[in-house]
Structure formats: structure tokens, C-alpha cells
Amino acid sequence: MILDEDFLLMDVVPKLTADICEYSLSDYIENELNLKIGFQQTEETRQYLTLSTVSSAVVVRSLVYLDNARLFQFTELSG
Fold first, then answer.
1. Residue 32 contacts by C-beta under 8 Å, 6 or more apart in sequence?
2. Alpha-carbon gap, residue 62 to 78, rounded angstroms
3. Which of 15, 19, 29, 41 is the most buried (most CB within 10 A)?
């Protein structure tokens, strides 16, 4: 199982709905809000666990910026 948590600045990405998030957040940002996503920085951490059902865990953190270099999203995936 993978847990995906996204944190966005409300003044940059207002009025999010479950439908928008389920379909495509990037599409909404670029095509509805007319913002251009510039780049993303990603960090991956692996932890090896000694559990009977899980052999490893991974956490991926991403910082997403607009094309003007303004940070607007923090994402953490863990599983």
C-alpha cells in the first residue's frame, strides 16, 4: 500500500475538490488555473525493516515549483 499526501498553498491552488484530485491535479493547475509547473525536487529514503510481511519501506518527498520558482506543493509518498 502507498500513502500519497499532498500539501498545496491555498492562495496558489484554490477550490480543490475530490474530483479534481482524483482526476489530475497537474491538469487542473496548468489548464484551469493557467499556471505553469516549472520543476520538482525529489528525495528518496529507503528503510529496510525486519517484519514478517514487509521487507522494506520507501518514503519519497517532492517539492514542486511553478515556472517562476515559487514553491506551491509538498508531496510525501510512503509505502
1. none
2. 12
3. 29
Residues 77/4, Cβ–Cβ less than 8 Å: yes
User: Residues in the chain, how many?
Assistant: 79
- Per-residue pLDDT tens digits for 3-16: 889 999 999 998 88
How far is 52 from 10, CA to CA, in rounded Å?
41
For the stretch 28-41, pLDDT in tens is 999 999 999 999 99
> How far are the Cα atoms of 1, 46, 48, 50, 75 from residue 63, in angstroms, in the given order?
22, 18, 24, 30, 7
Three cell numbers written together for 51? 517484519
